[in-house]
What does this fold into?
Amino acid sequence: MSGTKIILGVTGGIAAYKAPELVRRLRDRGAIVQVVMTHSAREFTTETALQAVSGRPVRSDLWDPQAEAAMGHIELARWAERILVAPATAEFMARLAGGFASDLLGTLCLATTAPICLAPAMNHVMWASEAVQANRRLLESRGVQLLGPDIGDQACGESGPGRMLQPEAIAKIIAGPVAVAETAGASLRGKTVMITAGPTLEAIDPVRFISNRSSGKMGYSLASAAAAAGAKVLLLSGPVSLPVPRGVECINIESAEELHTAVHRSISNVDIFIGAAAVADYRPAATEPNKIKRVRTELRLDLVRNPDILASVAELPRRPFTVGFAAETEKLREHALQKLEQKKLDMIIANKVGHGVGFDSDENAVDVYWKNGQKSFPLSAKAALAGDLIELIAERYAANSSSAGHGTRPAIAIRD
Ligand code: C5P
It folds into this structure.
């Protein structure tokens, strides 16, 4: 991140007291940080502290003639290579979603072409409210990246999702490309990584389908982290509302059969395959050509099994290093180890799903298993977790290549 020009927007939530610490963590990584505060942020932290840690005068007023003469707001918007708003309040998210240019920070966000990241912080009931979630979805569909929020105790005395991520975690995500590239770059640079992501959609008739709650966030975050580590990344994605990460080639598919065909069309040059898609296990035996009418009192659907794409890749005579996911509601370790062995994988990433955890959420906690080894990652934002997972995959890939080499992989024995 050395020399990266970041505008740090600080809005008026209690987590603003952590903003000076965040400035330090960003500057530790070499970033040049220009702080822009909203007026209500002043209730929670001070301009003096932020100026001292950033080493630059803090901006907050759209109508400050002196600051505008030095660097006008349009110039400032062009100067920024990234805009990070932390904490981002519910009010700021609403203003950004609505395109309001009512203060300096809102105006900069509209006038920039730089990527925008928000680290939301608010009471957990506010975070769960329909209005905030609608704004979140709208912002994400426009390419705004959301970091967190974290789950835990809140300033209001309650507990739940709504805490701002810790400054170190935010800085780590923002510095993602370098953080991953330094450690994993050596083994991933010039390699081809194929990642499947999102749900599949199995048509019943022209307007109805069977699908699942996968958001694609884990797969997209892994694609972004692998690209940042220098890999050539091919992302095969089911229908999701996420922007394609920079430097990633994306092929859109709908059904499991389409995904199967797309994977095998390009698999021969792939070094690492990561199956993060939530592939539907079954599809309707036949897709009705016309919309099914509501005439019968009962309707039965015949389903047939979809191909197991991950297992089909692991079975190839010259297979890539193959990584799968196991999303389980119970007996996580047992099921994950079974899958590692049965599907003949090199690694399996196991996560608990259900009750708001794992599938459609922004955070994940996982246990990773491979032959004779395992590592646990605590609950963290999927973007941060993806960097750690790519580092581990790169490490195991390098170890595997130097011992067995692909295509001559030894049989897996699980140590229990
Ligand atoms: O067996 P299970 O569906 O739990 O395995 C999950 C793993 O297998 C994930 O990595 C998923 O992407 C992959 N999978 C697949 N094709 C299927 C079903 C699952 O590639 N038909």
